[in-house]
Every structure is written in C-alpha cells, then in structure tokens.
Prior knowledge:
Two copies of one chain form a homodimer. Chain A is built from 16 helices and 39 strands.
Amino acid sequence: MARHKLLAGAALVASGMLVPHATGNEGKRVWSLGDQLAVPEVRALAIAADGKSAAYVVRIADRESDRTVAILRRVDLANGETRELLRARWIDQLNRIPDTSDWSARIDVGAGVQLYRIGANGETHPIVVHPATAIFGDSEGAVFPGYGHAPLRTGVRAHSWSPDGQRLFYVTVDAELKGKAIRYDGEVTSERARRRSPGQARASIYLREPDGTDTLLATRPQSDLTTFFDRNHVRWEKDEVRYDVMEIGSGGQQKVVTMAWAFADRKARVLDPKVERVYWLLPGPRGGRLSSQGNGDSRDLVETLPGGKTHNYGRFAFAVGDGRAVGGFRSQDGQRAIAGTRMIDDPRFGLAVIEKDRVHTIDTEHSLSHCDFVPTLDHGACIAQGHTTPPAVVAVDVPRGAVERVASVSPLHDGIDPLKIEPRTWVNRHGYKATGYVVWPRGYEKGKRYPAIVVTHGTDGDDRFANRENQWEYPVQLFAERGYFVLLVNDPSSRQNAEIRAAYDAWINETQDLPPETLRQLIWLNGVASYEDAVKELVDAGVIDPARVGIAGYSRGSQMVNVAMTNSHVFRAASSGDGGYLEPALYADVAGSYDAVFGGPPTDPAALVHYRRLSPSLRAGEVCGAILQQVAAPYVPSIDFHAALRKAGVPAQLSLYPGEDAASDETHIFHIPSNRIGAMQENIAWFDYWLLGKRDPGSPFADRYPLWDKMGAAAPRCDAKGKEPDG
Amino acid sequence: MARHKLLAGAALVASGMLVPHATGNEGKRVWSLGDQLAVPEVRALAIAADGKSAAYVVRIADRESDRTVAILRRVDLANGETRELLRARWIDQLNRIPDTSDWSARIDVGAGVQLYRIGANGETHPIVVHPATAIFGDSEGAVFPGYGHAPLRTGVRAHSWSPDGQRLFYVTVDAELKGKAIRYDGEVTSERARRRSPGQARASIYLREPDGTDTLLATRPQSDLTTFFDRNHVRWEKDEVRYDVMEIGSGGQQKVVTMAWAFADRKARVLDPKVERVYWLLPGPRGGRLSSQGNGDSRDLVETLPGGKTHNYGRFAFAVGDGRAVGGFRSQDGQRAIAGTRMIDDPRFGLAVIEKDRVHTIDTEHSLSHCDFVPTLDHGACIAQGHTTPPAVVAVDVPRGAVERVASVSPLHDGIDPLKIEPRTWVNRHGYKATGYVVWPRGYEKGKRYPAIVVTHGTDGDDRFANRENQWEYPVQLFAERGYFVLLVNDPSSRQNAEIRAAYDAWINETQDLPPETLRQLIWLNGVASYEDAVKELVDAGVIDPARVGIAGYSRGSQMVNVAMTNSHVFRAASSGDGGYLEPALYADVAGSYDAVFGGPPTDPAALVHYRRLSPSLRAGEVCGAILQQVAAPYVPSIDFHAALRKAGVPAQLSLYPGEDAASDETHIFHIPSNRIGAMQENIAWFDYWLLGKRDPGSPFADRYPLWDKMGAAAPRCDAKGKEPDG
C-alpha cells in the first residue's frame, strides 16, 4: 500500500527509476527511487519492563501527504509479531510507564506536541496537554531552529517517570509574545545569521506527585539550553529527583547546575558538584564515568571515579562515548554497565558489557544502533542494521552475548538484492588513514572502467542502512544501480595521531594556537588528498574511469566538496549540499571559529591572505568541473560561492528547495518528501549529464539541459593537469 | 479630540514633553512631542474640473489605533470650508472623475487596496474590487517592499480616466503562489539582501469601455517595474490610449516600450519611439520636454524637441525636474506649461509658467509642494508650506501669478509659535557650497553658548514643514525647544561644478572612471568638512559650545553620520538611522556601486585598502563619541558597525524598532506611531545624556542609563585634537 502510493507520482514513473525490477538473485529486486525515499529512520526504542515486547518509533516519508510521518510499532520479542500502534505527525521520547504495560511519548496528533499515554491497542490518553504556542523548527517566530522536521508547535518539551511510576517530571513551554518592545544590542546582533525572525519562550518544570497534583519546580529562560534541549538529565533518587539546568553568568558563560527537589520537604537545593557528583552519562560499574582515551587504532577504556581516580579496563579496537552509538546503561544492582561502541577501523556500532573486572563485547556482522534493556541488563532489544542489512529488531541475551533477529523494520527493503559494499581504510599520500566504504555498481564487469562518485560527510560513513545523516539526498544505492562506483570516504580520523588531534582541538576550541596553514593542511587539504588517493587506487586498479569522477557532500561534506573542487582537478562534477562554512561572508557569525582557521577577519589584510588560499568563492577560478549547490534556504555563503563560480565561467547551479509555506523553510536534513525526491532526481540528472553526457527527457530537470549546454560550452577548458586558459 | 488622544499615553505625560505650554507670543504655544508626531504628510491633491473645490489626502499618525491613517478632505476654494470625506487605512491616486463632481482613489477600507468612487458626502462606491492577494510592504511574502506604510494587500495597482470620463484604464495584481517549485540561481541569489521571503505577482492591464465592459489589454510579469511602480504613464489620445511597459532583454537589460491600444479596431501596437515620441514627463509648450542644464548657481531652462533640437528659455536660479517639486502640466491648447521648481540657493519649491516666448515664476515666501490645475491651467490649488509655515491649501491665479491662502491643513500646528529658522549657504574649507537651515533655540540669549545637533539627509534640507523625509525621527523642533541649535545641512550640491558632478556621475552610473580616493574626498569627506565648518562658524560666533555638538541622519544621512564619526572629532554623540551603505558586508548586494567607490570587493587586497579608509566598521577605533543606531530590521551592516564599535570600546546602542507582527518589519520611514514616539524619545534621551549629561527619570529609556554610564566610563578618552590611548 505504502509502496503503491510511492509509485503514484507521474514524474517518478516517467523517469523510469521507480519501477522495481528483479535481479537474477532469487526473485529479489534492485533499488528504486521509492526505496531510497522510504528508508525508515528509527528514532527510539524501548523495551517493556517484563522484557517480552519492545516498542519503537520510525519516521518515514509519506508521499500522499508530502510529510514525514512518525509510526509507533510494538514487537513481540518471542515471535516477532509486529503491530502498528499509532501514526502521527510526530512521536518521540518513547518510555515505558513503570509497572504498567503502557507507553508514554510526546506526540503531535493535531494539538501540537503533547504528552500522551499509549495503551496496548495504540489508543492515546492525554497525560499533559498544554497550549502549544512555542514553535521548534525553521519558521518565522520559532524559538529554536529545527533539524529535519516540520515546524513543531510544542506544549510539552520533556518528561521522565520515577522508577516506581508514581511521579512524573515534565517540562512545558510557552511562547512569549514580543509585542512592540524595542530590542537592543545583543538582541539585534544575534539575528545577523538568522533567516527567520526568532521567537522567545519560557519553560516551566513540573513534578506530578503520587496524588496527581502538579507542583511547579521552576520556570526557566530560553538561555537554559539544558532545559530546552537536553531534557534536564533527570535522575530519580529515593527521596528526591535531581535535574540539571543551565545558568548564564554575567559574562555570558554557560554553567550547568544540578538541582535536587526533595519529596518530603518540597524544597529545591543546588547540588554541590564536588561532593554529590552524579554521572548520568556513560556510567560505569565502579560508580564513575566511562570514556575512551588516547589516539591511534585502539583506545584505553577508562572509568573516572568520583575524586578523579581512574580505572583502566584495557585497550580495545573500539571507542565508547560516540554520540551515534547506543547510550550507556547501568544495572539496578550497579554491578554491570553497557556502553555503545564504535569500531575504529571498520566503523560499525556494537555494545561493550562492563563488569568490575571484565569487559566483553556484543558485536554483530553489522551495527546495533538503538537498544534498551530490562533493569537487570540481562536482556534487551536493539535495532540491527548495516549497509546491506535493512533495519531489524533483534533480541539480546547479555550474559550469553547472543543476538537474535526478531522482526523486520522494513519488509520493503528486505526485498532488495543487496549491493556489494565493502569497508575500506585508505592511507593517503601524507600517511593519514581515512575509513569508508566502496559501493560496487550492480553487475560489475571486470575489465570495464566505471564512473565514480565520492560521497563524504565527516565521519558519518559508517555501517548503517542508507543512513541519511551521511548520504543526505545523494541516492548512493541508485547510483550503484545505474553503473557508478560510489566511494563513501570519511575525513581522516582526528584521533589517529597527536598532530591532527591538536589541529582539530584548535579548530573546535577556537584557540589560535596553530597557524592557519596547519589547519588548512590537516583539516581540509588532508581530506582532499584522501579522496584523490582513494580514487587513484581504483583508477590504478583499472575499475574507475578517471575522466568521469564526481564528488558530493552536505554540511561538513559541503565544505569538503567546495574545497576539493577549488584545489583538485580530479572531479568533473560536484553536488554540494546546504553548507557555506569557510566563506568570508560568514565571518561575523562564527568569528571565533574563523579566527582560529584564518587568523582574523577577512578585512584584516594579514588574515585575508589565508581566506584567499582556502575560501571557495575566492578560488572560483581554480575550478575544473560543474558545481551544483542544493540549499534549504537562500544562505548568503552559498549565494556568494554560486555568484563567484558563474563570474569565473564555471558551470554552476544553485537550487533552493522551499519550505512548506512562505513562513517556513526546508530543514538542513530535508523533511519534505517532494523535496527529497526532487533533490535526488536533480543529483542523478546532474551527475549523469556532467559525468556521462547523458540526458533523460523524462527527468523533471530536463528543462535545465539547454542552460547546462550553454554553461558547458562557455566554461574554461581544463586538461588532466589543470586548468588552461581558453583559446 | 485628536490631540486629546495624543496626550493619553502615560509614558508621554511622564516625560513632560507632551504638555503644551504657552510662549510669550500672543497665547501661542511651543512644540510638543505630540506635535512632532502629528505633522501631516500631504500625499495628493486634485482640483475639481470647475475649479471651485479641491480634494487632498493627508496621512497622520493615530495614537489610538497605533496606525498611520489616511484622510481625504474637500476644500471649498472660495471660502476655505473644509470637510473630512473619508478616513481609511490607505488612500492614494486621487483623481477627479471627468464630467462629474465625484473623485476616484485607491482606498483600503478593509478589503485591501481597491478602486472606489467617492461621492460628495464621502460615500464610497466600488469601481474595481479585485481579490487582494498581492502584498506591497515589508512583510513575509510581499511582492515589493514598502516605503513608510503598513503591508498593503492590493487588488488594484493603478488607474487613469480618459479626459471625457468614458473610459477607465486600470491595473489589477494577483499574487502567484509559489507552491513547491524549486527555485534556481538568480531566483535564489536575489534573496541575498532580502530580510523577508519575497512573493511573486502578475499584473493585468484592463480597459473599461464606455458600455462598461472590461477588456484585458495585457498581463505583465513582476519584472515590469513600469507597470508595478510607475503606473504605466498613461496618455489618452483621441482614438487610442497609450501606456508604457518595461521589457527585460535576454541580458537582463530594462527597456521601456510604449504601447497603444486603438479603441476602434481593439488592437495593441508598439509605438516607434523615433516617430511617435511622447513626452509625459515635464512637457513644454513647444511639444518637447523641459529640463534644467548646466552646473553652478543658475541653470539653463531648456526644451528638447522631437528630433533632438533644443530651445533655451534662459538662465534661472532654479531647477526643474526635481522629484520633490510639483510635476509638469500642459494646457489643453498646448500653449502653456507649468513645471515645479526648486531654488538652487535657498531650496524652496515654486512654479515656473512657461509659454512659447515667456517664462514667469510663481513663488511664495515658502514652498508650493503639491498642485493641480484646471485643464486651461488658468487657475489651480496647491499646498503651501515652509519650515515655519504649517501646510495650507492655497488658490493660484496663474495669469496674475497670485497665491492666496484658502484653508489650513493642520490647525493643530497653526497654534504653535514659530521657531526662528534661517536659510544658510555654507562654503567649506575646500570652497564647496552646501545649503541648509539654522534652527535657533527658543528664547536664545546672546552671549550664552548652546549645544548643537547637525541633522543631514542628502539634499532634503529644504523649505517644507518638519519634513520627515529630511528629519526622520529626529525631533528637530523639540530639540530647539529644549535649548539646542539644530543645523540642517545638505550635502554639497553635486552640480556646483564639473569636478563634483563627475564624482557623483561615476558613483551613480557605477563607472570606475575615477579613483576611489576622489570619490571618498568629494562625496563623503567633503560633506563632513561642510558639517564641521558650519559648526565652526557658529562656534566662532560664540553661540555654540564646541564640547556639546552632535550629529544625526538616516539613510544617506546615516552614511554621512557614520563617516563623520569615524573621521571627525567634532561630534560627541550621534544618531544614525537605518543605514549601512559603505559596510563591507553589503558588497555582494551592491557590487557595481561598491566597485565604483572602492575599486572592487573587500576580498581584493587592492580594494581592501580603500575599505579600510572609508568603511565605518573598519575605522571604529577612530571614533570619539557615542553612536546610537536605530533600525527598522536587523540589517547586517548596522549589526557589523555596532559590533565593531563595542569591540573598540565606543559607547554604542543598536535599537531595533519592531514591525506590527512577527511576519513584518517597521519600514525605512517609520509608519507605526508608537515606534515614532519611541524613536524620538530615544534620540532626546541619547543627546541629552551624551551631550548635556542630563537624565530624565521619566524617560522610557531611563533603564538604559546604567549601561550608558558603564560604557561611558570604559570608553577610550578623547581630547580636542583626537583620541588618546587610555592610561
């Protein structure tokens, strides 16, 4: 049914890419554009207290409504029976309600994002419904921008149950109407980088008590990001609830403070961080906090105890603490902890089970990306997925270290004949390692040379299923179906040695400890060298045609694409998504960061030298290829780069994918299905045209070919060694 | 009644400035803040065909609704009896309907801006009411920005009656919903400078025929600025109607084309401009077009005839063709023309009556700012006004050259005892003349030294009544009541000699014919020299205290204020309104203009030298005074200048006056009465504090004093000669 809808769009059918057809492999079929669009994004998973079932939330594009919808499903862990409980505009913060078989979640079923109880059959009962006046999203008057979702009118920001289910901590938000007040100084300068006029809100922190009464613990200003974003890191103790808030000092410095609210005397106090230290993040079995330390191919797993002493569990080929891995768990008796791991070499996700004197890992062929466990941590449920494994629910037996598949999350994708996708670690000419994957074209024939596209986004090239945080609207799998090699290449690891780590530290901490030239080499040109050398290896092996190589990336990847195109002549076409960091126009909005990278503002002649070496728009004359930029809003830096390219005669296109209405924008990670389909089709048309010289009269971008012809004919000619002056 | 409302605001009463009190002069009173706010802005005037009455439109701030409202009044020219016909959100394009005693106008009475007939008693009857989907104004989705008015939903854009009243030419507009289309390239880059996401519209040009049927003559795209702004310059001929439209060439060049629609065969044709030349602008009695030519203190009045031959009427101390003067008229018999004049030395507005062999002027003590005449041009009605003359309706007897006052436009202001305001022409140290006015403080005492404020806005310092295009929200008259000298100083005239004219030509035509240094000297520093020398003259005369001199200006004046403060140490305080030209961040939006001024973009090291000499934010370290910026939106250049000032330790405030709602902004010329009151009070508080050290606990800005104290204490010290390093 869902697939049927996906096939309904005339433009899609016309382009011929949506019609599934079988491969030789046991009736399985190849990737279609509809498959790319319908890749489910698992957002949350929670196991029932009895361990017999689990619930999870996926977000999936719905073509009919042109929205990304959220779906809540329950899986019987014994037999895999899966039932859809609820479908809504938004579902998150899924929790089991202790001592019941019900769930709670923030849900938008039309009244804004509110807190509901979900019964066994998916029926919803309001727990907290608050007027939804504050907007989170990329719209006019929103209190905070969104990241991949439609503007969300929000009543309830967060919630947490006490372990006995008798108490509920929750946070509501209220927009503050700006009215006609004049705004001054910082209230104005903060809007420099804002596309949309921002709104203001206040948060109220409540405790619902066993008798059902609500007590207001605090109201918090919008500057308290711990309340507005981090859900206060709530920890329930026997006699009190502890939660974090952020205070802003007179000089603007941010400080997280832990509050405790005692149930008996109904008073709040501030916890002394030296005495009453609380480890909510990656707790270890010794009462401390786990982390991975050191540089290189393996890391020390260390628990830092209250007081600062450490215990070293040994050296492992994985790291804990990666934000993309599963979060940390500690058993009720405190004897066992589970931390999510990411392998350093072949970047897949697993679990480390840490007991006082023992560490064992739970590792599968691919990745364990979302997990939850019963309170004893004896068993749990996870989402398993990998490049060639569509997501599935698995049951985990912790003592045995066994993982068993229970149910598919996406039968649609189970029907696809997997592509050949190999993990790789490349060593570039400077000796730096970069991990990644090679996606082989379907039906590869030895001896034939293929076109290729490098796709890059920081270190998101890991073993997950068509992960959009990495591949954005670059339809990697469809490119492989269409005869391209795709190289998913990560940035060289920033922790492989002390030198590159120092460069990243200087960049991230915005120090000016290192000269701009060092950062340029290690953080940008080093990555370009990795892409070039990865391509060269496959060229030398005779499988890639060096005249038909492209590159694509969004956000951090967009930086890298823009730097690659202005420093390398390997790539004949590029697609750069929603980025513009390194452009001079952004200086005032990221001054500290640019001071570290360039040594000062672009109006300082000494720093301008460095901008002219690195800022893509100032190197437009070096480009030897066609550059498409796809953006979610008319960003100034993207516009500047586009204008510079066109001025230099470089074939270039700047495509703005609009929001749902005039008052809102598409988000950095696109959330509007028609935009996603459009962006993928545009990337296909762009690379097919500029790398292969192919035109598809059925493409919705076919009307752009005459302009591309004209730009191509007028472009400065480049040869293999570099750019030659025309004529 | 209206005044009563103006006095109602608590903040205003508390500040003590709204309470009128008498002067010694025959029971007349002094200026109040309410008077400043209530200065009427005359927008249109039309005389009845029989010449016995005239109608006019004024816009006046209405405190109660916090809107600027439009009022239509009719005046009996025989006895001055004035009647209010209509009060609405918007009224413009006032026309008499030929052969009737009714009027027509575009009016917004709640259904958007539509075309109505207005009867003798002010009753309105719809002529054309079209769905008002297109917005003109500074709001989200507007098709064009506004200039001093609330966002106007618009159904009818323009209209014109045939001389016999039998036919009506009119234009409707329809917004085009953008929907979900991807936008490309120029559609994206054009939004770089836009605060609000723009909308799109199409215009439809109609002819209503004698039988009442409507014929669609053409639909026009938004790129046709002649249709969207210039109301097509409609000219009625016996057998056809002629109108202009703008066509855009393939290279983007704009070309105005005249179309003719023949009534008989109902066909449109393009007029050959070489054969069928039509002079709609400043027509002369010989069938040509009038203009003033030459440089210096007097100009040749020239009529350029079809074919290019010219007739010179002689040399006069005025210029015709100034956009602020009355437009041109030609009598039915073609024997007489009337052109509005602006005096070159003492810049007031009058009329030149031009017959084939004779020119005579109609000049009053002050200015004639809006006029209309009966078809013979024998007599007419005008608005007369001057610095010390509130606007009034006057009757003009053209053959006799007589002007007779008929009725007041603003009895409220007639009750004010006029200030002493003298026209001046200053010659600066470089020999350049600048015109302007000196406003004397009320009750000036010889021998005492007074504080002073220079107010500047290009050449808008002319003889009109408290003209807001010149003085913006700087309450010049109230400053004089409070003991300040105010110097209204124009830019040195750009036509006083060939050298400065060449500099302005290079700037305006965006050539790079002259070196940046020449433009900097002649267009910016030359003006600063005029301000300094005007102040010096009054200092030398013993009337101004050199330690208490400020400067204020908006838009072009804001450029000049920012340049003055970063190049001169004469001014201890400044207020800079809604401007930011010359800031590097604006480069991409005004590239041609900046290339002329600076020689290239700021990222070109050779051009950067010139930015560092002239861009205010790059000279923040040179400032010796406190700088307030009042803005209508969070403009990037204003933000950059503010940030640079604060970084340099300069006392600075950036105040954003908000729009009516989250989706719209205040306009460049403020239109929200509460913002106007606020901005004037802020300017009073700012100059009183920084020039006089005065605090008013009742000021709505009193809560800013502690911050000003802190900024003042931390500011780098300056002495008379310049800035000294601290400590």
